[in-house]
Backbone:
């Protein structure tokens, strides 16, 4: 009987971890910036605190979910595209 290859074995986990750490931080900061722009009705002190505290849960969520990508290359490309989209949207809303 032929052995089946373990499809659940960790693949490119160094690359996925690096993508989650580096690009996940950029994505979390971009989402936090979008929240800051959207929450104009809040008091400034509350808005600043919520903006600051949204970074860590988003970053940790990205870092946890990055291992669902099939390869490290896909993780870098997917998170890179998400960063461009989020930070581009933030820049467009901020400066236009």
Residues:
């Amino acid at each position: 009987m032929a052995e089946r290859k373990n499809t659940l074995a960790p693949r490119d986990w160094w690359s996925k971890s690096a993508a989650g750490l580096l690009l996940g931080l950029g994505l979390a900061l971009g989402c936090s910036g979008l929240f800051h722009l959207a929450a104009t009705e809040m008091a400034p002190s509350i808005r600043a605190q919520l903006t600051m505290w949204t970074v860590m849960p988003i970053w940790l969520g990205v870092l946890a979910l990055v291992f669902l990508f099939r390869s490290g290359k896909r993780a870098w490309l997917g998170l890179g595209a998400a960063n461009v989209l989020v930070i581009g949207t933030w820049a467009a809303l901020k400066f236009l």
Remarks:
- The mean pLDDT is 92.
